[in-house]
Amino acid sequence: MLKATTDLSVQFFSFLVMSFLFSHMISMRSDATNTTDSGWGSGEACPENCTCRAMDYPKYRSLFNKTVVCTGVQFLNNIFPENIPLDVEILDLSHCRLTRLSLRLTLKHLRFLDISNNDLKVMDRQIHKLTALRQLIMRNNSLSYLQNGAFSGMLYLEVLDLSNNQLYSIEPHTFGGLNYLKKLNLEGNRLHFLSPQWFVSMPSLGWLFLSNNLIGRLKANVFEMLSGLFTMKLDENRISYIEPGAFNGLSHLRILYLTDNLLQTIPSQELHNLPLLQYLYFDKNPVLRIPTLAFHSMNLSMLTMSYMPHLKVIEKESFLNLKHLVTLQLHDNSELVYIDPNAFVNCSHLKNLYLHNNKLQSVSSVLKDSLPALKTLHLYNNELECDCNAMWMKQENLREISNKTYRSVLFGDSLLKCGSPSNRKGILLRDLPLSALNFTCAPVIIPLFRRSYNLSIGEELHLECYAMGLPSPKITWRLPNGTLLDKENLRTGRYEIRNNSRFILRYLYESDTGRYSCEAQSVSGFDTESSIVTVNNKPVRISAEYVAGNFITISWNGTRNQWSMTGYEIHYKPLDNSEKFQIIPLDRRLRQFRYTFTNLSPLTTYMFCIVYVFETELYTVHCTNITTGDEDLSTTGITHINSKMIVGVVTSIFMLLILGCCVLVVRRVGKRKDYLEPLYSKDTESLIDVIPLESMYQGQTTPAACSSRTSLIQSQD
User: Fold this and answer.
1) How confident is the model at residue 252 (pLDDT cuts 50, 70, 90)?
2) Backbone angles phi, psi at 475, to 5 degrees
3) Per DSSP, what are the bridge partners of residue 519?
4) Is-contact 534 527, C-beta < 8 A?
């Protein structure tokens, strides 16, 4: 018993000693953090109105650093202060209205420099003397360009923040030598392009932030040297095209932001070059559809494609073999009307699917059943068709009510409202009795085309429609002549059908005018939607520009912007014989709109026709007859008018006139020098007799525009 008591006493005493030591350490740490260290930072070395102490600085992870904080202090002449302790490790000069650094000090121990929120316009060349620097924060300044070697000497720099400046020009080797750089922030500048040379010497770069610039295109291999990059932000730019191979080299990229750009299609080929990509942010792009196999077999765990104002359709197997996908956000797409029931195939780990605030009329039960791990499905604020297509949703609702342990995948059933039919519009789905919903219903077509189209010959007709119903209806297309195209995929001649839902007719003729119908049929019924298509002749007309005895120059209008045409030809021959037409091919790349026909016969009528060509078929657009003149009118025809040549000739003449004026002025100034000294000599009267007044009076006839003075000599009475 005594031994036990002794052991308890020893343990209690040990506890008191440890508590005292711990409290003492906390006290010492508090003193070091909140009071000036008498051994460092006191005296004249600290700039006025600044704080100098050894402390834990929240912006830097290292503890007990020799720190100078001058946030908001305005220095003399708005330049870098000179009385800073030479052994400083952390220096904060943010919000100091600095206009230039003028760095004269050698701060060999400086590891962290914050000069953000100033008015620096030019990089100080002496900044490379900060050889120990680990982090340089220069955001919110007025830098507009960076020169080669701007950061040379900062061999150990890890973080460089140049965000929210006005950078529009960065020379190729600006970042040369930054072998240990881990994070580069260039957000909020005016960069129009990216150069692969910027990133040549950055093997350690893990984070690259390029948001909110003016980048319009990503070129091939631009990131090829960034094999260690982990996160890249390219959101809020103007990217409209990503070249094949643009993402080459990004073998470890896991997070990619492409939100708020101008991409009209999914860059599937380029995205598949990112084998470890897990998070893709693709919101706010003007994409029209998510096509089949857009993301197949990618490593994604989260994908966001929301707030896309033009997205209408998600096609079959768009999300195929996404075995790691957990969260998919497809909400707030105001034109999204259709998701194929088989859009998700082998997405075995998808738990969260957000489809709210769209324009969906139906989401098939097939889609829901294809996602075995689904826990949360948002479908509220859509335009649901409250018929058999909504039966599974009603059953989910009833099951959750009757079984308290069952949790429905549908979130917010109190917001699920009917959009159609008209007699149920606005009614909550949960308020409809089950008897109001049948297990089968007739097809309902969802047309994605207008009621009518006015097109020109040579253009393409694109029609698209989808259908819902139980059982699933079959879609066919009917042509104006009654022909029914019922194959799921067809490509023959000018016709193409893709997945039954998309009809394409290329190189239209006037004879293609008529009604085109999308028809849906099942054992439950039939539905059809049509569009009236009018094909007009091209607004191309030939006119005579110059007529002579042996040549004719013609011109035509209306072809300059018809780039969907495969080509034009001009056919011509004498009108009064049966000769074959002679053919002149026109190259649309040259933007040709006039031509001269030579070696013609005088006083002869010729027929000229402009012809549209598709493969082996010809379509006459316009013809006209023109008669040549007498032989006396034969001259050289108009083959080409070069506006640049005319401008060059006019400019040359103007320059010669200016040169002539300059010569005249020089000559008159020379004469003034010859006569200036005699005019002001004492013996003025005797000298006047020898001055050649004739030449002076002759000079007065020079035009005023070319003379420097009217006269250099005052007349004497």
Assistant:
1) very high
2) -105, 135
3) 476, 528
4) no
Would you call 646 helix, strand, or coil by DSSP? helix
**Hunting for tokens 């001649």 — which residue is that?**
493
Q: Kindly report the pTM of this predicted structure.
A: 0.75
Kindly tell me if the per-residue pLDDT of 28 is higher than 50.
no
Contacts of 678 by beta carbon, 8 Å cutoff, 6+ apart: 684, 687, 691
Q: Which residue has the tokens 């009217």?
A: 710
Of the two residues 493 and 277, the one the predictor is more confident about is 277
Q: Are strands 552-556 and 542-547 parallel, antiparallel or unpaired?
A: antiparallel
- 542-644: same fold as 456-536? yes
Task: Transcribe 551-577 into DSSP letters.
Answer: -EEEEE-S-TT-TTS--EEEEEEETTS
Domain boundaries, the chain: 299-439, 456-536, 542-644
Element containing residue 627 per DSSP (H, E) = strand 617-627
Per-residue pLDDT at 212 exceeds 50: yes
Query: Which token pair is 706?
Result: 């070319």
CB 239, CB 217: distance < 8 Å = yes
Distance between CA atoms of residues 326 and 163, nearest Å: 33
Name which of 232, 141, 148 is nearest 183 in CA terms.
232
CA–CA–CA angle 498, 502, 508 (5° rounding): 105
Closest to 476 measured CA to CA, from 513, 523, 526, 511: 526
Strand 495-498, strand 502-505: pairing: antiparallel
Q: Which residues pair with 626 in a beta bridge?
A: 606
Strands 495-498 and 410-411 come out as unpaired
**Of 453-457, 463-467, 531-535, 586-590, which range is least confident?**
586-590
Strands 552-556 and 594-597: antiparallel
Q: At a CB cut-off of 8 Å and minimum separation 6, what does 303 contact?
A: 280, 282, 295, 325, 327, 328, 329
DSSP letters spanning 399-462? HHHH-TT---SEE-GGG-BEEESGGGTT-BGGGS-GGGS-S-EEEEEEE-S-SEEEEETT--EE
Domain 456-536: give its CATH superfamily. Immunoglobulins (2.60.40.10)
The DSSP code for 71 is: T
d(CA 323, CA 89): 49
216 residue type, one letter: G
Domain 299-439: CATH superfamily, name plus number: Ribonuclease Inhibitor (3.80.10.10)
What homologous superfamily is domain 542-644 in, according to CATH?
Immunoglobulins (2.60.40.10)
- Ramachandran quadrant class, 499 (left: phi over 0; alpha: psi -120 to 50; beta: rest): left
CB 447 within 8 A of CB 502: no
Distance CA(509)–CA(479), nearest Å, equals: 14
Which strands, in side-by-side order, build the sheet including 338-339? 289-290, 313-314, 338-339
Which amino acid appears at position 682 of this protein?
Answer: K
Rounded-to-integer distance, Cα 658 and Cα 666, Å: 12
CB atoms within 10 A of CB 591: 10
Instruction: Over range 391-395, report the average pLDDT.
Output: 90
The DSSP annotation for 120-133 comes to --S--GGGGG-TT-
- In 243-347, at which residue ranges do the beta strands (DSSP E only) sit? 255-257, 279-281, 289-290, 302-304, 313-314, 319-320, 327-329, 338-339, 344-345
- Residue partners of 64: CB distance under 8 A and separation at least 6: 32, 54, 55, 56
In order of 16, 25, 106, the CA distances from 21 in angstroms are 9, 6, 40
- Return mean pLDDT, the chain: 83
Q: Judge contact between 262 and 285, C-beta under 8 A.
A: yes
